[in-house]
What we know:
This protein is an alpha/beta fold. The chain contains nine helices and seven strands; from the N terminus they run ααααααβαβαββαβββ. This is Class I SAM-dependent methyltransferase.
Amino acid sequence: xxxxxxxxxxxxxxxxxxxxxxxxxxxxxxxxxxxxxxxxxxxxxxxxxxxxxxxxxxxxxxxxxxxxxxxxxxxxxxxxxxxxxxxxxxxxxxxxxxxxxxxxxxxxxxxxxxxxxxxxxxxxxxxxxxxxxxxxxxxxxxxxxxxxxxxxxxxxxxxxxxxxxxxxxxxxxxxxxxxxxxxxxxxxxxxxxxxxxxxxxxxxxxxxxxxxxxxxxxxxxxxxxxxxxxxxxxxxxxxxxxxxxxxxxxxx
Length: 252
């Protein structure tokens, strides 16, 4: 049975656990009559928050974030950095990552070796291709040069990567290559011969269900790095890049 806590977005769970750790540490300090330095208190909060996150079953990479959050906050405040810097950083993160806190799909950029491996797996005749979460448009730009017989489309939800990829494809001289701003969940996959995604482990089960419902028989569903749970691919391609990427390929 799924607990109410597990139904919440991980970012909200992390925030609640940070608050719980802070309250527990402050309460314990008052009971013991202790008044440690702010950094010591922050380290205790971080340690307890990471422990609570582990108990709550959060992903391992969250544990480091939970541990470092409070100490990093204390150190930043000690540096007396102007508030405008943090406001600017917030807006930059907002336009780059947008709804990552909700979708749990951060901005990942495929390597050029992944592009090359993908290019070798595309149809030889005319075809339609969509990149779900196209980032700054690297995949589309590369493939449209290698396979000009294809029709390429991308969808991106984050404002700044979308603007970058739109300008890149609009004015870069790429033939039949377009990008639109929006959610991948609103894309009709029945229009495409090849559907490519480089997302995260979180949406893969839901995306697979969407692909099964919409994609045409014989079309290709390709995921970079992240497999579909309980559905072995028909083919895998190991890529010798920095991240040891793997292309998972399903024929629908």
